[in-house]
Design brief:
This protein is mainly α. The protein has helices spanning about 5-30, 45-95, 105-125, 175-180, 200-210, 220-280, 285-310, 310-315; strands spanning about 160-165, 170. Belongs to the bacterial flagellin family.
Length: about 325
C-alpha cells in the first residue's frame, strides 16, 4: 500500500479535527452543566428526558390546581365559620323568645334582631371570591346564589370539582342548597310527622313573622307563637348540624390537599434527581476529560505542525 504525503496530511488533519471536536464538546458540557445538550449526544437519555419533562410539567400543573382548590376550600370554611356563629346567635334569640313574660314589644325587638341575623346570613350565602364569583352558586358563579327577598336558591345544581392529582378529582365547593337548604340524616323530626322546612332563611322568616304578631291576651295566638318558636328552634338546630357537617367535610379536604402537596413535593424532588442523572454532567469526569482532551489536542497540533515540514522525499534521505 502506498502512503502519499496527501494521505499523511489528511490523517493528521483528521486527528486534529476529532480532538478539537471532543475538546469543544467537553467545553460545552462545562458551560451548560448538561451532559446531553442535543438528542445526538445520547438518544436514549434524551428521549427519557422528554418523557420526564412532561411528567414534571404535569406535576407542576397539579400543584397549581391544589393551590386553587386550597384557596377556594379555605374561603368557604372561613365563611361557614361566620355562618355558624350567626346561627348560634339566632338560636339564642329564639330560646329567649320562648319566655312567657315577654311583651309584644319585647318580641318585636327580638324579631328585629333576628332580621339582622337573617340579613347577615343572606350576605354570607351570597359571598363572592376575589374575582366576583359567587362561591355557593355552583357553576353559575356569575349570579347571586340566593334571592335576598324570598330566600329561594337561584344557583347551579352542580358543585365545582377540580382535578388535584393524576387520580384524584375533588369537590372543592358546596352549592347553596347543600349548605343553607338541607338537613343531615340525623335531623330532629317534626312531632306531627310533617315534612320540616329545610331552608334556613324561610325558617327565620317564619320565626320573625310569628314574633311580630301581637298576642295580647289571646291564648290561641300564644299557643301558635309557642309552636312557631319550637319549630324554629328545631329548624335552626338542624341547620346548624348540617353546616357543621359541611365544615367537617371541608376540613377533611384541606387535610387531604396538604398530604397531596407533600406527595407532589416528594415527586418533584424525585423527578429533579432523575432528570439530573439523565442529562447533567458529572463534574469530576468532565473536568478530567476536558483536561486530557486539551492535552491530546495540543499533541495533535504539534504532530501536525511537525508533519507540515516533512515529505516522503525527506523521509527517504
Amino acid at each position: 500500500m502506498r502512503i502519499s504525503t496527501q494521505m499523511m496530511y489528511e490523517q493528521s488533519m483528521r486527528g486534529v479535527t476529532n480532538s478539537q471536536s471532543l475538546w469543544l464538546g467537553y467545553g460545552e458540557q462545562m458551560s451548560t452543566g448538561k451532559r446531553v445538550n442535543r438528542p445526538s449526544d445520547d438518544p436514549i437519555a434524551a428521549s427519557q428526558a422528554v418523557v420526564l419533562s412532561q411528567a414534571q410539567t404535569q406535576n407542576s400543573q397539579y400543584t397549581l390546581a391544589r393551590s386553587f382548590a386550597t384557596t377556594k376550600v379555605s374561603l368557604e370554611e372561613n365563611v361557614l365559620t361566620q355562618v355558624t356563629s350567626a346561627i348560634q346567635s339566632a338560636q339564642e334569640k329564639i330560646v329567649y323568645a320562648g319566655n312567657g313574660t315577654l311583651s309584644d314589644t319585647d318580641r318585636a325587638s327580638l324579631a328585629t334582631d333576628l332580621q339582622g341575623i337573617r340579613d347577615q346570613l343572606m350576605n354570607l350565602a351570597n359571598s363572592t371570591d376575589g374575582n366576583g364569583r359567587y362561591i355557593f352558586a355552583g357553576y353559575k358563579t356569575e349570579a347571586a346564589a340566593f334571592d335576598s327577598t324570598t330566600g329561594d336558591y337561584a344557583g347551579g345544581t352542580t358543585p365545582i370539582s377540580q382535578q388535584v392529582d393524576s387520580a384524584r378529582t375533588m369537590q372543592i365547593s358546596h352549592t347553596g342548597t347543600e349548605v343553607f337548604d338541607n338537613f343531615t340524616s340525623s335531623a330532629k323530626p317534626e312531632p306531627d310527622g310533617s315534612a320540616p322546612e329545610t331552608n334556613l332563611f324561610k325558617i327565620l322568616d317564619s320565626a320573625i313573622a310569628a314574633l311580630n304578631t301581637p298576642i295580647a291576651d289571646d291564648q290561641t295566638a300564644a299557643d301558635a307563637l309557642t309552636a312557631s318558636v319550637d319549630k324554629a328552634n328545631r329548624g335552626l338546630s338542624n341547620s346548624l348540624d348540617n353546616v357543621l357537617t359541611v365544615r367537617a367535610d371541608l376540613g377533611t379536604k384541606l387535610n387531604e390537599l396538604d398530604k397531596l402537596d407533600a406527595l407532589g413535593d416528594d415527586r418533584a424532588l424525585g423527578q429533579t434527581q432523575q432528570m439530573s442523572d439523565l442529562v447533567d454532567v458529572d463534574w469530576n469526569s468532565v473536568i478530567s476529560s476536558y483536561t486530557m482532551q486539551q492535552a491530546a489536542l495540543q499533541a495533535s497540533y504539534k504532530a501536525f505542525s511537525d508533519m507540515q515540514g516533512m515529505s516522503l522525499f525527506q523521509m527517504n534521505k
